[in-house]
Amino acid sequence: MDEQLNISETLPESIAEQEKLWFSIGETAEALDIPASTLRFWEKEFDMIKPRKNKKGDRFYSKNDISILRTIQYLTKVKGYTLQGAKTAIKNNFMKEAETAAIVDTLLKIKSKLLEIKKLL
Fold first, then answer.
1. Number of Cβ atoms within 10 Å of the Cβ of 31
2. Are 71 and 98 in contact (CB under 8 A)?
3. What pLDDT is attached to residue 56?
4. Looking at the 3D structure of the chain, how many domains does it have?
5. Looking at residue 39, which CATH number applies to its domain?
């Protein structure tokens, strides 16, 4: 793919639609449907995730951070990569992996909607 992917295309809809620059750990965890503890763990494991912290130590994630987190989630939870494998995949071709994660997420949402419609028939 020659054209560059827009970062908002790799984000969960609930995040991409907002104009905010920073998202709390709770908002991020909810958008990705994972526990906040997983976000804190991945932050330690992946040096490319750099949430901003206020004086209290509360974490705030940028859209770029969330895109990386979503890609990590896809690689580890869907594709079954180890953390080291996910690190390698992201370093080698982040945009390809992020795009694939976004496509898979969209397809899963479509599947869910179709199953809902099927139940109504």
1. 20
2. yes
3. 93
4. 1
5. 1.10.1660.10
Structure tokens given for 109: 């949402």
Domain residue limits at 42: 7-120
Cα separation of 45 and 82, whole Å? 12
Q: Which conformational region is residue 26 in: left (phi greater than 0), alpha (psi within -120 to 50 degrees), or beta? A: alpha
Q: 105: which 2 tokens? A: 């997420």
Q: Is residue 2 part of a domain?
A: no
Residue 81 domain flag: yes
pLDDT at 50 over 60: yes
pLDDT in tens, 63-103: 889 988 989 998 998 889 999 999 998 888 777 887 888 78
Its pTM stands at 0.75
Q: What angle do CA 82, 84, 88 make, to 5 degrees?
A: 115
Let me know if residue 1 belongs to a domain.
no
